[in-house]
């Protein structure tokens, strides 16, 4: 229910009576170019990110907007998207059909591994940037208390159907200017990648400067406090001294690991930190599963709970990290599955089976989507029955998602 107090069930139950009324309102709004102020009102409800929040940043603001406005926005969105190209911004992996965090991370890692595979002296620099229309009144609700109303005239309104499309249109021209740099976007989480050869960092530094200028020209502010630099350099024979990157007059913090879209990416491209995090989170859920077992819930119900609360954690973005995880990492995660089997008294699929299944599923979706930025990696041989394997020099690239996905597709034929 939005701030206007009208819930969706009422609109659905009275659709026949209300449809002509709202049709006239929507058409009049489009004709005059004015949106009713009651449609633009929103209520912000802060939801804690952690059990004991101690700072305002520990809350996630959730905007409740009018259901009527959402219906209106869907009509406008469909009209706008019908006139747009199928792939307006190929490296924007959010708000697009058949795109997900898996695709963004897989593209990021494949580009990195391919560049490292091409030469011993190559390395990659990644700059992770997190958190990059008019007269919209909003207030904040906490419990039964409401704040005074504040009218906003800038930014993409949260909770609105049109906001993702408007943001994508606004940032679609934020693209790389050099063949040795790549800008990968997932909503406002942006990664600037510099594919560096012969220790030539000029294109990477110029790309960062270009992004900074683009933000200034488009009235966007880079959040330097949430901007981190990660250097992936697998060359053991060369010792390099990396100069710090500065943006907006501030030195960017360099880290050895960064949590990008829920996945911990380390500078050595190992996955122990990520799998340890998954195992810890999954083991915490096992406690609740044991408690429910003590109440003598049927095994079928317990299995469904496992699938929803534990397996969903273990298989999150599994296609991008499982292939290069170590035997010890996999065993630690598999122990969680075996513990769940003892609790539920049912046989559960092992992670290797889940990984292989998801590789095939993900690969088939990419093959069927010619607008996908990684569709070009899947090319058929002359026979038309099998896909061409990707050339790899290192075991690290060979075990990554795309070579494994092609192998899984060929085995399934």
UniProtKB/TrEMBL annotation:
Pfam families: ALKBH8_N, RVT_1. InterPro entries: AlkB_hom8_N, DNA/RNA_pol_sf, RT_dom. It comes from the Eukaryota. SUPFAM superfamilies: DNA/RNA polymerases. Residues 28-265 form the Reverse transcriptase domain. One of its GO terms (molecular function) is methyltransferase activity. This is Reverse transcriptase domain-containing protein. It comes from Electrophorus voltai.
């Amino acid at each position: 229910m939005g701030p206007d107090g009208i819930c969706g069930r009422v609109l659905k139950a009275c659709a026949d009576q209300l449809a002509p009324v709202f049709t006239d309102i929507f058409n009049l709004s489009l004709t005059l170019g004015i949106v009713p102020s009651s449609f633009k009102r929103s209520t912000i409800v802060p939801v804690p990110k952690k059990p004991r929040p101690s700072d305002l940043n520990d809350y996630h603001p959730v905007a409740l907007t009018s259901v009527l406005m959402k219906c209106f926005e869907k009509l406008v969105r469909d009209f706008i998207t019908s006139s747009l190209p199928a792939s307006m911004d190929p490296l924007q992996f959010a708000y697009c059909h058949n795109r997900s965090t898996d695709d963004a991370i897989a593209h990021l890692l494949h580009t990195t591994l391919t560049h490292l595979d091409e030469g011993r002296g190559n390395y990659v620099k990644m700059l992770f940037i997190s958190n990059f229309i008019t007269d919209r009144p909003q207030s904040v609700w906490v419990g039964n208390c409401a704040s005074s109303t504040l009218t906003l005239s800038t930014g993409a309104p949260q909770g609105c159907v049109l906001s993702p499309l408007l943001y994508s249109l606004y940032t679609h021209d934020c693209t790389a200017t050099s063949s040795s740099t790549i800008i990968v976007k997932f909503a406002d989480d942006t990664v600037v990648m510099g594919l560096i050869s012969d220790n030539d960092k000029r294109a990477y530094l110029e790309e960062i400067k270009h992004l900074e200028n683009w933000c200034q020209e488009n009235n966007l502010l880079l959040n330097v406090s949430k901007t981190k630099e990660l250097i992936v350099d697998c060359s053991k024979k060369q010792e390099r001294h990396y100069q710090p990157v500065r943006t907006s007059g501030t030195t960017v913090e360099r880290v050895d690991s960064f949590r990008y879209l829920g996945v911990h990416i380390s500078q050595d491209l190992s996955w122990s930190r990520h799998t340890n995090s998954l195992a810890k989170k999954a083991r915490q859920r096992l406690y609740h599963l044991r408690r429910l077992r003590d109440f003598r819930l049927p095994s079928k119900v317990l299995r469904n709970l496992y699938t929803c609360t534990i397996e969903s954690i273990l298989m999150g973005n599994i296609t991008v990290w499982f292939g290069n995880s170590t035997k010890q990492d996999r065993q630690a995660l598999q122990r969680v599955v075996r513990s769940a089997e003892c609790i539920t008294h049912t046989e559960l699929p092992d992670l290797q089976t889940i990984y292989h299944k998801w590789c095939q599923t993900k690969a088939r979706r990419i093959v069927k989507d010619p607008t996908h930025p990684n569709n070009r990696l899947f090319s058929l041989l002359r026979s038309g029955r099998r896909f061409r394997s990707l050339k790899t020099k290192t075991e690290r690239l060979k075990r990554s998602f795309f070579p494994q996905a092609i192998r899984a597709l060929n085995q399934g034929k």
